[in-house]
Amino acid sequence: EPEVTQTPSHQVTQMGQEVILRCVPISNHLYFYWYRQILGQKVEFLVSFYNNEISEKSEIFDDQFSVERPDGSNFTLKIRSTKLEDSAMYFCASRGVVGSNQPQHFGDGTRLSIL
Amino acid sequence: EDQVTQSPEALRLQEGESSSLNCSYTVSGLRGLFWYRQDPGKGPEFLFTLYSAGEEKEKERLKATLTKKESFLHITAPKPEDSATYLCAVQGSGGYQKVTFGTGTKLQVIP
Description:
By secondary structure, chain A is mainly β. Chain A is built from no helices and 11 strands.
C-alpha cells in the first residue's frame, strides 16, 4: 500500500539554526500538508499546499516557516532560526483529488529536538 | 472555530471487554469526520470517514457512528493489538483544507 515517507526520523538542532524536514507524499496525490504534535498535546494543522502554492495556513505558520515542492516528488518544511518551542513531532500528510473531504494520509513524522 | 473533544482520555479494558469511545464536535458545516489510530512514535493511521448523521462504518472489531453532535467508536471484543491512541478529527466548511484533531483516547487492552 502506498505511503507517505518522511526523513529524517529524528533531527537535533541548535537553537537559532535552520532546519529542513523532508517528505515524499503518495505519488498520485496533489494536496500536501504539514502538522505538528508537541509531546502530550494534540495534532495541530500548520499548512496546506496545492498547485505549487499555500492554500491555507494556521496562526502557528508564521514568517519563520516556509514550504516548498522543489521537484515532482518531495515536499519540504523549512524552519528558519529555530526556537526551543519548535521541538515537536512534525507530520506530513497528503490526499488525492477526488472530493475535498477525502481523508489525509500521514507519514510517521520527524521528531525535531531543539537544544 | 472548529472544536473536538474526546472522552475518556484513557481507557483500560480486559481482552474481550467491549466499550465505546466518544468524540463530541462543534463545526461550521461538517464536511467530514475522521477516525485515526496512532501508535507510539508513529503517525496517525486512517480508519474511517463519516460524512452525515446516521452514517456507520465498520472494520474488523471497530464500528464508527455519527450524529449531529458526536461520533462513537465502538470496539467489540478487543484484543491487545487494538491498544493505541484513537484520534477523532473534523473538517468543516470554514477551513477548506484544515482538519482539527481532538486530544485522543489512549486505549490499553490487557490480555
